[in-house]
């Protein structure tokens, strides 16, 4: 009603309202335009990949470079490729945890992914979001599932490292074999070792006083004196043993307090004896024994001997060659027997209380007498643990498909290393360790629990009886690992050339060889004659 009142203003008002309508119209259109532009911009921000790649595809459709596409940070091809890599890792992990369903699903998505990638490469056209999305989301879902079921990132890293390690070891084995085929071995140390043995044996027969000397040493009260520091070495390699002994005394404050108990085989007995009788060791005591002296080490006592004499086992170890009892100690394969002597330390040294076991492929770099005063907390075996690297866990050495193993042991239990161990022989006898060893060795008569080596038997025998030592006591891997930290090596009390690339072989890793060579007297007349250094 009130509107009607100012009737006279109507024409003016109508003109103004037309203008207003025009203005509103223009604003609306401008607003719409702005909205559309803004929106498009946002879409571009959200999906730079799709917009940009499809644009460039439209521009230069024929000349798409798929290599560049794979390297581009924004392409779907790149994303798919990255996901394949990750998914493959999860396949390995899933398989390892026997989750075959997940492994299968992942593999099938990986195949889809690869198919899409190869299609894109063939048609030379980038992958679009429509193509990539279903696969990416399915893969992401599966990987989420994998992560959810305890395959966390540390498991992933551990598993990947383990596989890398396995590959590396295979590569090294191939190197070693290749070297053998190349007759490298023929011109390297083994021949020199043989030559050294011959010269030492000659000297033994030339010099009758050596025999008297050795008998004197054999009865030395120092051999059973528990106030001295006792070291055990089981070896068939004179040169290696001499480097172990020399490096130990060279770094000891009081070498005259050290006693070395060496056990070797018949072939190396006289050379070993002669070497240590004719080379000064700064007042230390060295006792050399022949494994054949141990009459208690017979088939009725040791399951290992029994197994080694067993016909079938013999075929396994010796490739079917006929062996008689007498010959067993002569066969070089019986080195394994020397290795197994570490399970008979109290039998070999009935009156000793503590001994340090050294493998013949170690080099000592610090005074080891401190080891004897470490508190082992009632444990039998002081050893460095090796599961820091993740993969040296029980499941790696033992057959966990067998209930005798899986019922008693944790597959993730930490492994440890032989090579430098301090043994409390009193605790050993208290815990009946030797009979534990016999029990496991007997159970493994069919080689179901583990295949070869002394470590698996050790892991079972000393289970719950191992005192972990600081890792710097014993740094491992110098016989296969090319990338050990220099500072770690420098800080190590003992470095261990475990692996195929022993320092006395041509194959040795040159970076570490000097660590061993500095304890070998290459000026010794026999070594000079035998080794072209
Ligand atoms: C594709 O790109 C890569 C890396 O930029 C280049 O090395 C390669 O030569 C290119 N291939 C073709 C066919 O252009
Ligand atoms: C076998 O060893 C046991 C003890 O270890 C010993 O009593 C026995 O006499 C040995 N047998 C032979 C034939 O030496
Ligand atoms: C592991 O143990 C199981 C059960 O005893 C056996 O069937 C399997 O052959 C063993 N594996 C190996 C590699 O010996
Ligand atoms: C050790 O063996 C002896 C007999 O050989 C036995 O009497 C003793 O109980 C065993 N000790 C342990 C801890 O098994
Ligand atoms: C022991 O090592 C030292 C170097 O530390 C060396 O001079 C010496 O000749 C070595 N002795 C023997 C017997 O090899």
Describe the structure.
The protein is α/β, with parallel strands linked by helices and 533 residues long. It has 2 domains: 64-151; 186-530, Alpha-Beta Complex (Spore Coat Polysaccharide Biosynthesis Protein SpsA, Chain A). The chain is 53% helix and 8% strand. The chain has 23 helices and 9 strands. The chain has helices spanning 10-46, 48-59, 66-71, 76-96, 100-123, 129-148, 153-181, 189-206, 209-218, 238-250, 266-278, 303-309, 311-318, 335-340, 345-348, 394-397, 403-406, 425-430, 433-443, 455-461, 486-491, 510-517, 525-530, and strands at residues 229-234, 258-264, 285-290, 354-358, 362-364, 381-384, 420-424, 466-469, 494-496. The strands form 2 sheets. A 7-stranded mixed sheet has the order 3-2-1-4-7-6-8. The protein has a two-stranded antiparallel sheet with strand order 5-9. Helix 4 runs antiparallel to helix 5 (100-123). The longest helix has 37 residues, at 10-46. Residues 4-8, 41-62, 179-188 and 320-333 have low confidence and may be disordered. It binds 2-acetamido-2-deoxy-beta-D-glucopyranose (5 copies). Residues 295-296, 298, 300-301 line the site of one 2-acetamido-2-deoxy-beta-D-glucopyranose.
Q: Given this structure, which CATH class of the largest domain is correct?
A: Alpha Beta
* Hetero ligands: 2-acetamido-2-deoxy-beta-D-glucopyranose
How helix-rich are the residues, as a percent range?
Answer: 40-55%
Strand content: 5-15%
* Major sheet description: 7 strands, mixed
Structurally, the number of domains stands at: 2
**Strand runs, count:** 9
The best one-word shape is: elongated
Spans of at least 5 consecutive residues with low confidence: 4-8, 41-62, 179-188, 320-333
